[in-house]
């Protein structure tokens, strides 16, 4: 993917403003003028109350930076996430409430994540013991990464408790950054083992929770919610949905270096069709693969506990020398220079 393509995605207004609205309200409680947070960003405080309002990643990250400057060291992401409920993610939340089980609700939330207002990308994996939802960056924005992960995981906890009851507890929480000064807040909120400095940020729960039936399950209401979502969200579908689907498949199998044929099979299309659709958008599979590898590598290099050899392995390189050459091509810098 070219720098021009990346910039287009960075500046495309396609993110619902649920998170930003909650952030503005919280800053007002701290005694700050929330309208000033929006100055010069291309939207107003009133716009954040409009369900149809969409902002770009550039706009959203700028507002978050302003808030963090006004409230440094407060664990602002945790505070925001704690205040959110299932209703905080809009129509997707209501559809999740009508699912049969917690596992069904989580799967629905994953499939519709771009409409929840999150500024991260989430991937779900499960085995016979646990369900793990990992978070990764859409763009390399290390100064707001901690806020985004904090908000997301604290929100996960509140949403799960809203669906399955207050007895819900995660098995563990992994964070891919060093422990902040307020690390005790993580333990207070999540009430489970919290591990900092991990390769991947992940919210992990016992598999038994996936089968927990929801008291709010209603098949007719669920069908209606899905229909409303289809009508409402169909207007927002973009050509880049294809890119996101490919990148998600790559992220889930980054060590394995999936071939183009593997990706086509995962997306249930022929290689010829997939190649044609990419060509129509002026994008190659290799450029998308490189984009995922670059963002993942940048994210991991921020963790001083990980060696360059470990980072190379995690992004699909058996030889760290080849990784160094590729990284230099992607960023213009060596991995060591980025640390």
What does this structure look like?
The structure is a single chain. Helices cover 52% and strands 9% of the residues. Strand 3 (120-126) and strand 4 form a beta hairpin. The protein has 3 domains: 1-72, no CATH class; 78-237, no CATH class; 240-338, Orthogonal Bundle (Arc Repressor Mutant, subunit A). By secondary structure, it is α+β, with helices and mostly antiparallel strands. Helix 2 (18-29) packs parallel to helix 4 (57-70) and helix 6 (91-97) packs antiparallel against helix 7. The longest helix has 23 residues, at 142-164. The strands form 2 sheets. A 5-stranded mixed beta sheet has the order 3-4-7-5-6, sandwiched between helices. The chain has a two-stranded antiparallel ribbon with strand order 1-2.
Largest sheet data: 5 strands, mixed
What is the CA–CA distance across the termini?
Answer: 24 Å
Number of helices: 16
* Strand segment count: 7
Stretches with pLDDT under 50, minimum 5 residues? none
- Percent of residues in helices: 40-55%
Output the radius of gyration: 20 Å
Structural class of the helices, strands and pairings?
alpha+beta
Q: What is the count of distinct domains?
A: 3
Approximate shape? globular
**H/E topology pattern:** HEHHEHHHHEEHEHEEHHHHHHH
Q: DSSP strand (E) fraction?
A: 5-15%
For the biggest β-sheet, the strand order reads: 3-4-7-5-6
Q: How would you state the average pLDDT, rounded? A: 90
């Amino acid at each position: 993917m070219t720098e021009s393509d990346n910039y287009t995605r960075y500046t495309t207004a396609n993110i619902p403003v649920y998170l930003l609205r909650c952030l503005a309200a919280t800053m007002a409680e701290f005694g700050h003028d929330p309208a000033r947070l929006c100055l010069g960003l291309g939207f107003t405080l009133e716009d954040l109350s409009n369900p149809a309002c969409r902002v770009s990643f550039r706009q959203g990250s700028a507002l978050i930076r302003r808030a963090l400057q006004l409230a440094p060291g407060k664990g602002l992401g945790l505070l925001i996430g704690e205040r959110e409920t299932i209703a905080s993610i809009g129509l997707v939340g209501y559809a999740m409430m009508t699912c049969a089980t917690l596992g069904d609700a989580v799967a629905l939330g994953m499939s519709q994540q771009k409409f929840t207002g999150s500024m991260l990308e989430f991937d779900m994996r499960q085995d016979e013991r646990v369900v793990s939802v990992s978070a990764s960056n859409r763009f390399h924005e290390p100064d707001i990464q901690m806020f985004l992960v904090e908000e997301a995981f604290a929100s996960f906890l509140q949403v799960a408790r809203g669906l399955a009851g207050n007895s819900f507890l995660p098995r563990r929480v992994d964070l891919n950054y060093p422990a902040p000064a307020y690390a005790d807040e993580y333990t207070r909120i999540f009430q489970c083992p919290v591990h900092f400095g991990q390769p991947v940020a992940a919210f992990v729960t016992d598999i038994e929770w996936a089968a927990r039936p929801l008291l709010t399950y209603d098949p007719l209401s669920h069908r209606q919610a899905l229909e409303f979502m289809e009508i409402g969200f169909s207007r927002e579908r973009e050509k880049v949905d294809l890119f996101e689907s490919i990148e998600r498949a790559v992220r889930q199998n980054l060590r394995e270096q999936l071939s183009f044929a593997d990706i086509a099979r995962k997306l249930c299309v022929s290689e010829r069709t997939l190649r044609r659709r990419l060509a129509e958008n002026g994008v190659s599979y290799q450029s998308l693969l490189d984009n995922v590898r670059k963002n993942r590598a940048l994210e991991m290099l921020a963790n001083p506990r990980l060696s360059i050899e470990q980072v190379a392995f995690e992004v699909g390189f058996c030889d760290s020398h080849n990784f160094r050459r590729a990284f230099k091509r992607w960023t213009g810098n060596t991995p060591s220079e980025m640390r």
